[in-house]
Amino acid sequence: MSAHPLLEVDGLRVAVRRDGTALTVLDGVSFAVGAGQCLGIVGESGCGKSLTLRAAMGLLPPGIERTGGEIRLSPRAGAAPCAVPPGQAAGRGLAMVFQDSHASLDPTARVGAFIADIVRRRTATSRAAARRRAVELLASVGVPDPALRFGSYPHELSGGMRQRVAIALALATDPRVLLCDEPTTALDVTLQAEILRLLDAARADRGLGMVFVSHDIAVIRQIADVVAVMYAGQIIEMGPAPDVLDRPRHPYTRALIDAVPTLDGPIGRFRPIAGSPPAPADYTPACRFMTRCAHHVAACSGPVPGVDGLDSRHRSSCVNTLEAR
Amino acid sequence: MPAARLRFVAGRLVQVLPVLVALLLIVVLLQQLMPGDPARVIAGPRASAEQVTQVRHDLGLDQSILAQFWKYVVNLSGGDLGRSNRTGIPIATIVGERAAVTVWLLFGGLIVSTLLAVPAALVMALRPRSPAARVCARSLTVILNCPPFWVGLMLASVLALRTGWLPVGGFGENTGDRLRSMVLPSLTIGLAAMPLLARSGAASLRQVLAADHVTTARSLGLSGWPLVRRHLLRNALPPAVTLLAVQAAALLFGAVIVEQTFGLPGLGAEMVNAASQRDFPVVQALTLIFGAAIIGINLLADLAVALLDPRTTWR
């Protein structure tokens, strides 16, 4: 990892505007990603994982906007990251791979021509050179017969092949950081492993920074160096992957790991987390996991510290951490 | 692939056949259903009862409906649409002289409505909160509620009478005059067709805009016109084409009124004249032609929609 991180998300706040009121759904999310590093963001549905990536890209849906914080992106290798205004990051160093490769590719665009088009927008090369580059990219993501597949439409490809095309498209923008929004969730396990290997290879070969969002702890364990755990719009624990996943400090992280059934564990026992996360309207400065937590103490009802993830030390927002108990 | 496409077209034509037969039946029945006795009309008001019976026999009107239907179909297959009651001129000749005016009128209307509807739809879908979008939406409501004959009269009185740039009506002798005489009628037809086209276009664009693949395109740094041209329009086009075909009937009806308003010698004006003078064979033939045209336009639209979507399986 070089001296400067490639991407810094600092104190990100995002709100949904409805009927004149703003409902904060992301609250002080901070993290940094360096070259060749993979940050895994894990959490249950609705905790704000995908929204964090959308906000970093500047691709928030209508009615949702960034109300605070800064996105800083390194303009070139080795340079200190500088702030990007909302909506400026896409195609300028950040690229994204989405979950549903069926819906996320234009059904009327031939995949090769689409990639060549993106290449041409970036580099202003000749049509023939862009075409060659597109075929190279298709080959590099493991599409067999890339010259033949150049003229295919997305619906003519399998799910795994479409996701490879989606990765080739993202790489065509020559990103420094790749944001992955559950790119393997819609695939079966064998394909999942192949796509993970492919993404990992792209990261190693190109020195990409990577942010990988998933609800699947096994996938995160496989690909991430640093793990952030999100709950109810906040990062509640963050640190090096082995520390967070094997020695969690936050009761929520512990519960999340325990909820995964294991092959060598007791048979027929799931350990679900009782209750459900609070709705954004009920977010308070107090610990948001408190009502579902077996270990809560008086201090949990007061304001709890946020997790500043700009360095990669192991931190937790729990005032009564498992380690300390 | 072309062979598969030909089969697709052939399949659609076979589907259309029953509709065409039904249309023919209606056309033949029309004569029975219309008020007044065609034999009496042809024989004239002073004809005796025997003369009327004779005319009825000559025209085959005393035969059964099926026999009349068969005779019509046989004549039609030989290109014979019958003769006008009023003038005795073969209807095929009348149609040949007048069809071009109507076709150009519809074509002009199509161009005008597309030129007006596409920008309006883009503004309403891409900048929904802008003042321009609000102006568009309100103007569409106003235009939608203006009957074409009134719009035609207003255009004629404001654009033609005040300025003298364009003829108020009639059809010129040379190409230049004819083009000039098509401007206001095309504008009238185009304005009548435009509001629904713009609204459905905007709705369809909004739908595409919310699609995941547009977010992907944006995540790749695409924005502005390249995004619209390559990823929005192509996806939003098929519903608009379908709607346009559905509107074909309304457009043809509009042509009837507009030709009358501007004194254009087209099929619509001929239809009005023939109907008002009980010229049954002409009304029959024109009903058949208008119906066939609407069927044909819908067939073409089906084909265009299938061609526009690469996911079409040509079956």
CATH homologous superfamily designation of the domain at 7-85 and 218-316 in chain A? P-loop containing nucleotide triphosphate hydrolases
**Could you tell me the number of beta strands of chain B?**
0
Helix proportion of chain A = 25-40%
Assign the CATH architecture of the domain at 7-85 and 218-316 in chain A.
Answer: 3-Layer(aba) Sandwich
Mean pLDDT across the residues of chain A is 89
* Highest-level CATH class of the domain at 7-85 and 218-316 in chain A: Alpha Beta
Radius of gyration of chain B: 24 Å
Strand proportion of chain B, as a percent range, falls in under 5%
Radius of gyration of chain A: 20 Å
What is the N-to-C succession of helices and strands of chain B? HHHHHHHHHHHHH
Largest β-sheet summary of chain B: none
- Computed structural class of chain B: mainly alpha
Count all strands of chain A and give the number. Answer: 11
The CATH homologous superfamily of the domain at 100-276 in chain B: MetI-like
> Strand content of the residues of chain A, in percent?
15-25%
| Assembly of the depicted chains | heterodimer
Which structural class is indicated by helix and strand composition of chain A? alpha/beta
Largest sheet of chain A: 7 strands, mixed
What does this structure look like?
The complex is a heterodimer of chains A (325) and B (315). In chain A, the strands form two sheets. Chain A has a seven-stranded mixed β-sheet with strand order 6-7-8-3-9-10-11, sandwiched between helices. In chain A, strands 2-1-4-5 form a four-stranded antiparallel β-sheet, covered by helices on one side. Chain A has helices spanning 49-57, 111-123, 127-140, 146-149, 159-172, 189-206, 217-223, 241-246, 251-258, and strands at 7-18, 21-33, 38-42, 64-73, 82-83, 94-97, 177-181, 209-214, 226-231, 234-240, 315-316. Chain A has a domain at 7-85 and 218-316: P-loop containing nucleotide triphosphate hydrolases (Rossmann fold, 3-Layer(aba) Sandwich), CATH 3.40.50. Chain A is 29% helix and 22% strand. By secondary structure, chain B is an all-alpha fold. Chain B has a domain at 100-276: MetI-like (MetI-like fold, Orthogonal Bundle). In chain B, α5 runs antiparallel to α6 (131-144) and α12 (267-276) packs antiparallel against α13. The interface between A and B is medium-sized, with 27 and 21 residues.
